[in-house]
Write the structure tokens for this entry.
Amino acid sequence: MRTPIQRMNRMLMLVSAPFIGLFFFLLAASYPTDITYEIQSTATPNDWKQSTAAINTQLDEASTTAKFTIDSIRKVATLYQKTTSTMNAIVNQSTIQAARPEKIYNTRITKRLGGASERVDSENITMELYRINQSTYEGYAVKIKLKDPKAMKMVLGHDTVGRAETTMQAVKRHGAAAGINAGGFADGGGGRYPLSTTVMNGKYVNGGFEASYKDLSFVGLNKQGQLIGGKFQSKSQLDRLEPSFGATFVPVLLTHGVKNPIPDKWKGSPSRAPRTVIGNYKDDQLLVMVINGRNENGSSGATLMELQNKLANLGVVDAYNLDGGGSSSLIFNGRVVNSPSDGQLRPVPTHFLFFK
């Protein structure tokens, strides 16, 4: 049985033979015809033996070169495999090391929330549901990691300005995994309209941009899936943040981890109420809190200062109050999680939805 080298040598000779023949053909063709006849007529068997010996020598040299080339290729392939394995190990280790701070940070904020009672996890989003039980109020929190910015969006009631629907209806209609009520609204002319500046799919609706007035503030997500918000006096000022969607209500609770003063009007109108708030951690994870209130058990909800302190203690850096009272709603895994103060969900014009 021939070795791989021998098989390679034989193959090389077979492949080389036509080219060697072509070489002699071209060589012969390059001389005049009469000289060719003279060479052919005067050639002796000894001449052919010498030519054959020369060809054999060249084939031996080609065989040696092929063997050397094969050995070199094998060495390079072995080195490549070792290098690839080493680089993969380095990349894997770097990935693990890079993920450690994020994992440590996530563990730290999760401990403050307690044990999750429910979880939704997909390639686009991770959501964890927690109970909030304080001495003066109770409710729910959802920690959300958007792996894809498209996993969260805002929708209008029945996708029409001036119409309203419950958050459950919006969740079902759009096939979302979870949802909360969003911005404030004003009723008029038989319709229910989003309050002030509202952005959908990167475009302004409900009359376009409105400069912030009184205590109102905008809150939404930019095109990178990061929470943005605050007061904006010009359209260009908000446009620089590249809003993908957002709604308006009042007030801003935290900015870069600093507590904002609560406007006097919102300290007692009423003091305690059902609430919906949204915030973000420094790693861009979101935290939604929906607080119950005004139910038959006597719970009247939370004050904005209580939620402000709670959010700060949980490590949230930016936080915004959304519409509350009877509008507060939290849908998770196909069911109403909170206790709506109206006894049933209120139809509202804007909703924040989350998708698997």
